[in-house]
Sequence to fold (982 residues):
Amino acid sequence: MNEILGLSAAELAKKIRGKELSSAEVTAAFLDHTTACEPGIHAFVTRLAEDALQQAAVVDGKIKRGESVGALAGVPIAVKDNIMVAGARTTCSSKILENYIAPYDAHIITRLRAADAVFVGKTNLDEFAMGSSTENSAFGVTRNPWNREYIPGGSSGGSAAAVAARMAPLAIGSDTGGSIRQPAACCGVVGFKPTYGRVSRYGLVAFASSLDQIGPFSTTVEDTALLLSAIAGHDAGDSTSVNAPVPDYQAGLSRSIKGLKIGLPKEYFIAGVDREVDTAVKNAIEVFRKLGAEVREISLPHTAYAVAVYYILAPSEASANLARYDGVKYGFRAACDNLLEEYENTRGEGFGGEVKRRIMLGTYALSSGYYDAYYGKAQKVRTLVKQDFDRAFAEVDLIVTPTAPTTAFKIGEKSADPLQMYLSDIFTISCNLAGIPGISMPCGFSGNGLPIGMQMMAAPFAEETILRAGYQYQQQTAWHTKRPPLS
Amino acid sequence: MSQFETVIGLEVHAQLKTDSKIFCGCSTQYGAPPNTNICPVCTGQPGVLPVLNRKAVSFLVTTGLALGCSINPRSLFARKQYFYPDLPKNYQISQYELPLAERGCVDIVVAGETKRIRVHRIHLEEDAGKLLHAIGARTLDYSLVDLNRTGVPLMEIVSEPDLRSPEEAVAYLTKLKSILEYLGVSDCDMEEGKFRCDANVSIRPVGQKELGTKAEIKNMNSFSGVRDAIAYEVERQKNIIASGGKIVQETRLWNADTKESHSMRSKEEAHDYRYFPDPDLVPIELDERYLDSLRKELPELPEARCARLVGVLGLSAYDAGVITAEKALADYYEEALKTAGGEPHGKTTTPDAAETSAAKMLANWTITELIGRLNTAGKTIVQSPVVPQHLGRLVFLVRTGALSGKMGKTVIEEMFISGRPPEEIIKEKGLVQISDETAIGKLCDEALTESPKAIEEYKAGKERALGALVGLVMKKSKGQANPAAVNKILKEKLS
Fold:
């Protein structure tokens, strides 16, 4: 493997800025490697090789002329294909947007351009981010770089696989119920979902607006801090974006975690959790203990309702968010003779099965006569889930759990059983319902060589706590340095 | 057959006069080429988010305050879901639970009696686009979508079912329009679709408390259309009941050409809008300080202005009512008053006799001479070719005797055609009034010499004979003599 591919984003940025490496050679190295291993993985819906090399040349020019450059100058980054990059195709892995060219940049893309990052491609996802395996893509499944018979997790499976396979040192994903953290766990990389409102959603194609949040993928926590610093902050274009100062996430990483209070919710260490996963997470907790953290058991009593609440609220919001895909203004339009047929045929043919299932679930939950029993009740329980965390964070600084009850499953294994599929997000969903930040980072491997993820959650806007603990953990362990065997 | 009572509730949609749309920065200008005032947000591109226009909120709250509504300190936006090509997101951002304003009223006067019509709620929402089914005379076998109007802020003002006749409905709309114009929150132009109205109409036997089954009437494009459509609906419902039928709940479309309505959809076909709070927008929270600042800026409303014109300027209630019904007309009148010499001078705020007479005379000229001509020409006061300063100066000349009333009418006729100032027309036509007593006395002497018979008749007590003499003098002066002066001098000479 080219040694460039082994470097972290922080190291690449430093070397590019220091003229040890040019962005052109770095970008080319990642692009070439992608060309070699993409056929077996299929992490990308659209590659942006030419654009990337042009951007790299621009950054190199700036550095050569001694102009000031951004924090990610010349560093390649992959972007989930539900985020708008102006001029690039943005499909959401759906037939209905197959040929949709983004007419504008998402707010985070504007920020990443200002940071001089280089966009190498748009990554595969479950259609409209609905799924946990990246199998629900109109453009083919993404395979887990550690074992191609297995799913990479989802919905940001393309981004997770791209980072795991070193097709990019950094990637952007989106997380509505675990869509960053669960694939990060499956692929053995770091995936971070910030506090709701920390990162602007403008230009992220909405799935469930009150839950969606954009976040980074990387191999090191330091890189996650670097990328989060670049994308976090208030955006007047997103009314739910929070106007609070953004700390320098890298600066605090090396501070000790001595005395940090870690809570282990008993509802997350249960019989259904794979023994190897349970062991790996408990071993990680021992590392924290050795670093001086105080560990105690806590309770999040409404955990059992999270999945049910999520599968009412998320589809409800989705049923409205996805109404705009009707073939009238843009995207796929089916053959038809009248307006009703136009709607029915376009949406019938344009959306995949899982998307249609969720639109129907949401439409039903919001119908007159059912609203109070479903949507109304679910909102109330959501508040209870949030209160669980409020109480917990009055006691502890950090909550540590497995990211998912099992390691990645085989492609096709759960396709026929949506309920089993939904349960793979059982440990990640509460975090979205509560709007708090959460990370998944590698903490071991199963006997069959698949990565295991550990999840850490903190109070709203306590991203720093998570990143510091994660960084300290990575200083003591080597899981994040393991690479899948790639040609 | 028992007597029936008509029950009407109105839903008025008024476009708010903001420069930009409610959730994006696009212009709200009417009449721009199709699909030019659009952006990713208002065309419903994937990934876009709405950002609320503060001005739209303040316009709505101002309206709520003017109608005596309670303003909710916390209010919510909701998504109203239905599929239609003029609605790019296939949901409309509107308000459902917790609208901005609730429980207000509008006082109307019908047949000399004041009646209070309760306002149920006022909420804020976005307008939809427009579909075109024809280009000129050519009907298309497809439809074109123009999204310029999409996202223009609308307020929906929902009345309680307090109206009892088509006349009351029109009086309510007229008053509401007048208030919105006074507040400067909406242009209220019905032709441009900036002020639209749907009516919920039902009938019930007199004395019955429960409401009858209602029909919702849409597509009324003028006040007369509202009156006709409601009258038609009431008759239709009475006929159904008279023939032993039952009213079905439905939505009906009014056709202004045929003066009939037809059913658009029944209750069974009604949309389930599946309202839910819009997660893209945070609740609107308004504090007392904000409400106070808007309260302080509330302009004088039609009733207060009318009372002032009666109380201070001495206009009749009728004249003041006509002038203040429309803000633009009242503004015109008060502007003209400055040059007519009717504004109180110096430190006093009460006008003297001359000023009162100027005010009255101006009201008279405005109503009979100007509005009459505008109506005939199909123009609004804003389009008046006669600017207020000119009308004021004309009235000043008439009141001070420089011009006779008759001359004044000739002059305004010309002003209305050319838009020129009165002085220019008077000079051109040689229309200056002769008030000089010596000159008039000379003409009177001539007339008396020529009409010995008239003198005899006058002295015999026939008052009419004086009229003939005045006429003769006026003729000799080519109409320029001051008739009052002629009258006075002739009487002196005959005594």
Summary: The longest strand of chain A covers residues 438-445. Chain A has a mean pLDDT of 96. Chain A touches chain B through 43 residues (CB under 8 Å). Residues 3-260+396-481 of chain A form a domain with the Amidase signature (AS) enzymes fold (CATH 3.90.1300.10).
